[in-house]
Structure formats: structure tokens, C-alpha cells
Design goal:
With 295 residues, this protein is of the alpha+beta class. It has two domains: 1-94, no CATH class; 159-284, no CATH class. The chain has helices at 17-20, 22-45, 55-67, 70-80, 89-92, 103-122, 163-169, 171-176, and strands spanning 178-180, 187-189, 203-209, 216-227, 235-240, 242-246, 249-253, 260-264, 268-272, 276-277, 282-284. β6 and β7 form a beta hairpin. α2 (22-45) crosses α3 and α2 packs across α4.
Length: 295
Amino acid sequence: MCATYEISFVLLPPNPTHLCQPLEVSYFAPMKRTWRRILTEWTSKRRGPFQKSDFPYLLNKTLTELGVNSAQNLKSGFRTTGIIPLDSNQVLKRLPSAKKTDDESSNTALTAFFLDFLKETRMPEKKPARKRSKIKVVPGKTVEATINEEDSLNNEGEEVEDILREREKNNSDNENNLIENEDSESQIEIHEENNLVPSLQSFVIVKVPTATTSKFKYFVALVLEKYGEEEENMNYLVRYLRKRKTGEDVYFAFPNIPDESIIANKNVEFKLATSIKLRRERYKFKNIPKYLALE
């Protein structure tokens, strides 16, 4: 059938696609050159890794430049490859010539190109990096727009719901009676409000208001520094301890990350007179009021 219709099969030489295939000559080759040029310009003006978000922009820029003459180039590809009209000279004239170039002119051109390249890359554009932040949300909790100062104290433990009710039941006993230690080592009289002046390196119980309710949470803390002269307006730098329980043994210890804050004198709820220091910076207190549910 091929002989009837004068159809001949011609085997092309090895690797002739860049010379004989219309799509490769008229579209894909220009696209590769344009993409390489745009990518080289981008990398020479910016430092750092190539971000995924930059790829669509550069690809769109490449296709936009190709789209101006892409239709005409596709038609010209058949003529350039010598298919329509049939002309073998179109391919032959595109073969590299065997003429040797002058070494001096080549060196001059290479030097000029290298100098131009250094001028372009000497002061690259610095693209500001976009900071991406990850929101850490505890499952079951709501996201708040602000962070309260007391939030760091509320990381451990649950809210004490019946503190005020228990305090009302025991208020009369707490104001007039003595608190007896389990080992009968010492007794301490409960303070009157606004009369506590703890000394440095002493342990106290402080009350911290919660962020969502009018209730308070109570913590054992160590007094580190004092600020002010008048007792009523005194402020303290304290470091909080956390309640730990091993079996039936209850003790207090400092967290791995120091938890410190400045409190007012009115937030000092109770002054601990005695403490038992255990190993590994652990403490026990025998005179903690029973009405206080400590964190």
C-alpha cells in the first residue's frame, strides 16, 4: 500500500529530534530555553532554597512569554524542519560548522560574560521570608486571642470548684483557732487579712485569680525578692511549686521550667512557718490549712 501511494519510510540519524521534529524545534526547545533563563534570573537575585509557592509564578511567566508567538512558531516549525515544503537544506544548514573559532575572541567573550554575571549577582534581591506560625491548641479547649499572665500557673491541675464554699464553712475556725501539725512539731496562728509580711526565702500560699471565673487557685511559692516600703503596697517576686503525689505521700516540688511572677501583698493568703526539705528539692509542709485545695 505504501508503494501504491508512494509513501517511503526514512530512518533519521541518531539524536535528531532537536533538528527534525516540528514540536521540539518550534515549541519545546523555546520553552526550555525560556524556563532556564527565567529560573537563572530568579536564582541569581535571591538566596535560599526554592519555595513551592514560587513555582506557579515562574511557570506562568514562562508560558506568558511563549504564548505571544506560540501559534506562529508551531506553523514555522514544519518549514524549519524541512517537512513542508520539503527541503533538506533547512536541516543541513542548522548542523554545527567545523570552523574553529579564534581563541582570543572566545576568551574575550567569556571574560565579558563572566563580568556581567558578577555584576548581576553581586547584590541579589533579598526576599523577606514569610513567618509561618503553628497554633497549639489543647484538644477540647477554646482558642483565646490573648494570653493572660496567670495562664502559666494554670498549666497543671484542674480547677477547684468548691473553694469558696469550703472556706465559708471553715471561716470561723480559721480566724480564731490554732492549726495543729500532724507530728505536733509547731503551731501557727492564722493571719488577719493584709497583715502578712513574708521574709525572703520563706514559703507562702498565694491566691491567683482564674481567667474565666471569679474564683481563685492556690499555690505554694517561695519568696525571692521584695519591692516597696509600705506593707500594704508591698510586691513580691515568687517562684511557684507544684503539688505531687506518690501513693499516699504528698509533697511539693519546683517544676523543671521555673515558674515565677510578681504578686501583690493582698495575694498572699497564708504564711508557712515550717517546712521539711526532702531530697531532690522536694518539700513537705505540716501547717497547710485544710480548707485550701492546693495546685
